[in-house]
């Protein structure tokens, strides 16, 4: 099955998930249950030149189960203890994610949290903040340019950051048409479902270097991370490259400190 089919399937199912959520807890009730955030992602990323968003990822729609050794909360604690700047937590069932896992991680760690989901309705942004999210993922491919901008402003109105995910030049143009600070280049090919950091290398020349640029997926080695940093990325989002490592803690440290040796040598 091609990614475009998987993506369409996920988005179609998401409509039902959101409709059910609205019935169980109407938007007005969600709004009464939340407090505004403090743009924790922005503050954290300004503290360091290089940032790792470590993903608590147990499963992939394409590759199946990725991690059986740890729970989501166990991964979160390992990441926090070993230098991650921020955590990404799935709430979509295709990745074995759920809202309850997000709440558990929020109670366990103090790092900023990104709600990793397929956001197609503003309701999900309010819900994310109610769950304790500091940022949301907005996928340019599944939103119109107008909706992308509107959702960005909705996130900001709640004190949350937004990571706009792009896959190609058209997505990049849509992202750059917004005032978004954070742009993530997803290295997953939408036809073959393979990942390669060459996707980031190809799109970086078309990016605005004044934004914060994150390379997502397909980062498996310290050399991958160093190469992306040297190319101009400000950080990486890594899931499979961490959870499938023999030593998750050591791999987290490696990714979080990528390029620090070279930086020290030049000082």
From TrEMBL:
Pathway: Amino-acid biosynthesis; L-tryptophan biosynthesis; L-tryptophan from chorismate: step 4/5. InterPro entries: Aldolase_TIM, Indole-3-glycerol_P_synth, Indole-3-glycerol_P_synth_dom, RibuloseP-bd_barrel. It comes from the Bacteria. Residues 7-253 form the Indole-3-glycerol phosphate synthase domain. GO terms for biological process: L-tryptophan biosynthetic process. The keyword Membrane does not apply. The keyword Lyase applies. It is an enzyme of class 4 (lyase). CDD domains: IGPS. It catalyses: 1-(2-carboxyphenylamino)-1-deoxy-D-ribulose 5-phosphate + H(+) = (1S,2R)-1-C-(indol-3-yl)glycerol 3-phosphate + CO2 + H2O. GO terms for molecular function: indole-3-glycerol-phosphate synthase activity; phosphoribosylanthranilate isomerase activity. Keywords: Amino-acid biosynthesis, Aromatic amino acid biosynthesis, Decarboxylase, Lyase, Tryptophan biosynthesis. Its EC number is 4.1.1.48. Belongs to the TrpC family. This is indole-3-glycerol-phosphate synthase. The gene is trpC.
């Amino acid at each position: 099955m091609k990614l475009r089919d998987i993506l369409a399937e996920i988005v179609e199912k998401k409509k039902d998930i959101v409709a059910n959520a609205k019935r169980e807890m109407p938007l007005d009730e969600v709004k009464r249950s939340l407090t505004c955030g403090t743009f924790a992602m922005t503050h954290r990323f300004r503290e360091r030149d290089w940032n790792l968003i470590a993903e608590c990822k147990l499963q992939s729609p394409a590759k199946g189960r990725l991690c059986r050794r740890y729970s989501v909360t166990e991964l979160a604690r390992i990441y926090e203890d070993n230098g991650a700047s921020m955590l990404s937590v799935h709430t979509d069932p295709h990745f074995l994610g759920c809202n309850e896992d997000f709440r558990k991680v929020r109670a366990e760690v103090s790092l900023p949290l990104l709600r990793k989901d397929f956001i197609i309705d503003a309701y999900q942004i309010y819900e994310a903040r109610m769950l304790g999210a500091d940022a949301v993922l907005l996928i340019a491919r599944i939103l119109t340019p107008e909706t992308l901008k509107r959702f960005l402003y909705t996130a900001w109105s709640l004190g949350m950051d937004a990571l706009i995910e792009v896959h190609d030049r058209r997505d990049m143009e849509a992202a750059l048409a917004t005032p978004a600070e954070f742009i993530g280049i997803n290295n997953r090919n939408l036809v073959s479902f393979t990942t390669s950091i060459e996707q980031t290398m190809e799109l970086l020349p078309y990016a605005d270097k004044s934004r914060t640029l994150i390379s997502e997926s397909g980062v498996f080695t310290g050399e991958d991370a160093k190469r992306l940093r040297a190319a101009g990325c400000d950080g990486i989002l890594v899931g499979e490259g961490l959870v499938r490592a023999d030593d998750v803690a050591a791999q987290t440290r490696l990714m979080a400190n990528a390029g620090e040796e070279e930086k020290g040598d030049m000082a």
